[in-house]
Amino acid sequence: LKNPKTSLLLFKNGKLICTGAKSEAEVGKAINKAYENIKHCIKN
Questions:
Q1: Domain range enclosing 19
Q2: How many domains does the chain have?
C-alpha cells in the first residue's frame, strides 16, 4: 500500500504479516485498506 507505506503478506492459512508501518495505528489502517480491496474475493 502506498499510504501508509506498508507491505502485507497474506498466507493461505489466514496468517498475515504487515511490514513497514511505523506505529500500530498504521498497521490497523493498512489492514483495513487491504480488507476493503480484497473483501469481494472472500468466501463465507
A1: 7-41
A2: 1
Q: Does residue 2 lie in a domain region? A: no
Q: What is the pLDDT of residue 26?
A: 95
Radius of gyration of the chain (CA): 11
For residue 5, report the phi and psi dihedrals to the nearest 5 degrees: -70, 95
Distance CA 5, CA 16 (A): 16
Residue with cell 472472500: 42
pLDDT per position as a tens digit, 3-12 = 889 999 999 8
Quick check: is 29 in a domain?
A: yes
Asked if the peptide bond before residue 4 counts as cis, ω within 30 degrees of 0, the response is yes
* Cβ–Cβ < 8 Å for 21, 6: yes
